[in-house]
Design brief:
mainly beta, 1 helix, 54% strand, globular
């Protein structure tokens, strides 16, 4: 039996580049590669529950490797040749108490 290995995904980091005429921030999105991310489909029951509660359809859950310092809230991500957006706040566990290589998870929905 082989070791569990994630895929490389693109995470778009946001950098504030200025403000518009109304004082709202303007951001530039820059892709960075994040290696060893696990991708799992969200069950249909969870999609229905979350959609009812939040009005969003979550399609996949990502497991983020230990030691990752990227911001995952409200970010665009790309994998499987498609674009998604993270939803909710990422959940994080204590690294030393989790036996595998991942200690954060975040859900994503399809982004058109």
């Amino acid at each position: 039996m082989g070791m569990i290995k994630g895929i490389t995904i693109k995470l778009y980091e946001k950098t504030k580049t200025g403000e518009d005429a109304f004082g709202h921030p303007i951001f530039e999105e820059t892709p960075v590669e994040v290696n060893n991310v696990l991708v799992a489909p969200v069950t249909s029951e969870a999609i229905i529950t979350d959609q009812d509660l939040q009005g969003k359809r979550e399609v996949y859950q990502l497991a983020i490797p230990k030691g990752d310092t990227h911001e995952w809230r409200n970010r665009k991500v790309e994998f499987f040749g498609k674009t998604f957006r993270t939803v909710n706040v990422p959940e994080e566990g204590i690294e030393d108490l989790i036996p595998l290589d991942w200690n954060k998870k975040v859900k994503v929905e399809r982004y058109e």
